[in-house]
Amino acid sequence: MNYNAQPKASHFINGAYIEDTSGAPIKVIYPASGEVIATLHSATPDIVDKALAAAKSAQGAWAALSGTERGRVLRRAADIIRERNRDLSILETLDTGKPLQETLVADATSGADALEYFGGIAGSLTGEHIPLSGGDFVYTVREALGLCVGIGAWNYPTQIACWKAAPALACGNTMVFKPSETTPLSALKVAEILIEAGAPKGIFNVVQGYGDVGSSLVTDPRVAKVSLTGSVPTGRKVYAAAADGMKHVTMELGGKSPMIIFDDASLENAVSGAILGNFYSSGQVCSNGTRVFVQKGIKEAFLKRLSERLATAVIGDPLDEATSFGPLVSENQLNIVKGYIAKGLNEGARLVFGGNQLNKLGFYLEPTVFADVTDGMTIAREEIFGPVMSVLDFEDEVEVIARANDTEFGLSAGVFTNDLTRAHRVIGKLEAGSCFINTYNLAPVEAPFGGSKMSGVGRENSKNAVNHYSELRSVYVSMNDVEAPY
Ligand SMILES: NC(=O)c1ccc[n+]([C@@H]2O[C@H](COP(=O)([O-])OP(=O)(O)OC[C@H]3O[C@@H](n4cnc5c(N)ncnc54)[C@H](O)[C@@H]3O)[C@@H](O)[C@H]2O)c1
User: Fold this and answer.
1) Is the ipTM above a cut-off of 0.95?
2) For the segment 356-379, what is each residue's pLDDT rounded down to a tens digit?
3) Which parts of the chain have pLDDT scores under 70?
4) Angle 157-170/85-96 helices, nearest 10 degrees?
5) Average confidence score pLDDT of the chain
6) Residue 141 bridge partners (DSSP)
7) What pLDDT, on a 0 to 100 scale, did the predictor assign at position 195?
8) Residue of the nearest CA to atom 3 in ligand 1?
9) Contact, 399 vs 425, CB < 8 A?
10) Ligand 1 atom closest to 218 (CA)
C-alpha cells in the first residue's frame, strides 16, 4: 500500500501552516509497513521564536474574553473532532500503528472529551469572597499563567495535545505544543480544527522537533508553564530546566504499576483487566499494570485463561477494523522491547506466551507473558513500554502491598478482589496517583490523572487540572481607616 500522510507544512503558527525546510528532517514511518508516509522538518530557532511570539501576543486578548466565550470555541472544536473522528483515527493509526479499532474510540474522541469538559467549565472559573473582621474582605481572582508549553510522547498524540490544550486554553493561557518527533501529525489537525472552531490566531501553535527543540521551548523566558508527557529521564531534565526559570510544571511520566489479583477475584474480570492493562496499544501505555501479582491459589488458572484469551487476539493490519493488536510504534521501540524479553529469559523468568517478533513487514511483536517473575528481575523493575506482562506470585496481603510499593514509580495501581473492605484497604496503601478496583486503565476526563513518586507532578483532567493552569491573585479591601504605629 502507498499511504501519503504529508501535511501542508511542518508547523502551525499564528493560525496558519508554515514550513522551514532548513530544519533537520523528521521522517514519519508507518509502523505496520516501515514505509515513510511523510517528511517534516524540525523547527529552526526562527520557527520556535515565531511560535512563542505568536502565543505571547495572543494571550492577553484571549484571557480578556469571558470564560463562556473561550469555552464556546473549545466545545465547537470538540464537535468538529467528533464529526471527523474516522479521518482523524485513520491518521492516528498511520502515525502510531495502533489498530483503528482502538483509535476510533480512544484517541480523537478522548481529545474531544477534554475540549468539551474544559469548554464546559471555562465559564465557572472564578475566585471567591473572603469576609474578615470589621467589614474588611479579600477577594481572589483566578488568572491565567500566560504562555504554556506542551511537550508530548508518541503513544497518544491527539489525546496528549488535547489534554494539555483544553485546560490551558479554558483558563485563558495560550500554548506552543511540540509533539513527539515519532508521531508529529495529529497535533497539526487539532491546531487546524481550533481555528475552524473560531479560536483567535496564535492561541494554539504546533512546532515539530527533537529534544533540542523541546529544550529551547522550556528555557525561553516568555514561557510560564511546561507540561510534559514523557519518560522519567526526560522529565528530570525538563523539570530542572523549568525550575531554573521558576516555571510551573506538570509532569506525566513513566510507570511500572502493580496489579494485584486476590484468589477470590472474578477470574474472567481479572484476566480482562490484565489484558487491558498490558496489551492495549501493544502495551505502550504509561499507566499499564505490568507487574501482575497473582495470589498463589489461582495462579495456574489465571495463566491458562489468559493464554486462551491472548490466542484470540487478531494481530495484523491496523487499518482493518477486525484487528485488535497492532505493531509497536517504531523499530527502535521494537528493539528495546526485544532486549527486555531476552533479559527476562536470561534471568530465569518462565515464558508462558508469545515472545517472538512476527515474520512480516512492520514492527510486530507477539503479546508476551512471563510467569515466575521475581522482584529483582529487570523485567519487574524497569518500564518496558511494550506488550510484556510479568506475573509474580504472592501469598498474603501485607507481603504484596510492600512488594507492590517497592518501586521508584507511582503512576497507577489496581486491585482485583470480591472482598469489599480488602479492596479499599489495599488500594488505600498503594503508592500511586491513578488507582483502580476491579477494572484497569480507564481514564475519563472527569477524573484526575497523574502519578506520584518518580511518575510525575500535578494532575491532568478533572476540575483539579484548573489549579495547574491558573493561579490566584488575592486583593485585600479595607473598609476602615488605616492604623499605623506612628
Ligand atoms: N504519565 C503519562 O501520562 C504518560 C503518558 C504517555 C507516555 N508516558 C511516558 O512517555 C514515555 C514514552 O514516550 P517517549 O519515548 O516519547 O518519551 P521521551 O521522554 O523520550 O520524549 C517525550 C517528549 O520529550 C521530548 N524531549 C526529549 N528530550 C527533551 C529535553 N531535553 N527537553 C525537552 N523536551 C525533550 C521528546 O522530543 C518528546 O516530545 C514512557 O516513559 C511513558 O511512560 C507517560
Assistant:
1) yes
2) 999 999 999 999 999 999 999 999
3) 1-2
4) 120
5) 98
6) 473
7) 98
8) 252
9) no
10) 33
Q: What is the pLDDT, as a whole number, of residue 162?
A: 98
Any idea which residues carry the catalytic annotation? 252
Cβ of 409 less than 6 Å from ligand 1: no
| Per-residue pLDDT at 4 | 84
456 CA closest ligand 1 atom index: 1
Q: Report whether 289 contacts 59 (CB < 8 A).
A: no
SS3 letters across 76-137: HHHHHHHHCHHHHHHHHHHHHCCCHHHHHHHCHHHHHHHHHHHHHHHHHCCCCEEECHHHCE
The answer to whether the CB of 218 is under 6 A from ligand 1 is yes
The reported pLDDT for the residue numbered 322 is 98
> Is 126 buried (19+), middle (13-18) or exposed (0-12) by CB count in 10 A?
exposed
Q: Is residue 53 exposed (0-12), middle (13-18) or buried (19+ Cβ within 10 Å)?
A: middle
Separation of CA 152 and ligand 1 centre (Å): 6
| C-alpha–C-alpha distance, residues 7 and 288, integer Å | 32
C-beta 389 within 6 A of ligand 1: no
| pLDDT value of position 483 | 93
180 CA to centre of ligand 1 in angstroms? 7
* Binding site membership of 443 for ligand 1 (Cβ less than 6 Å): no
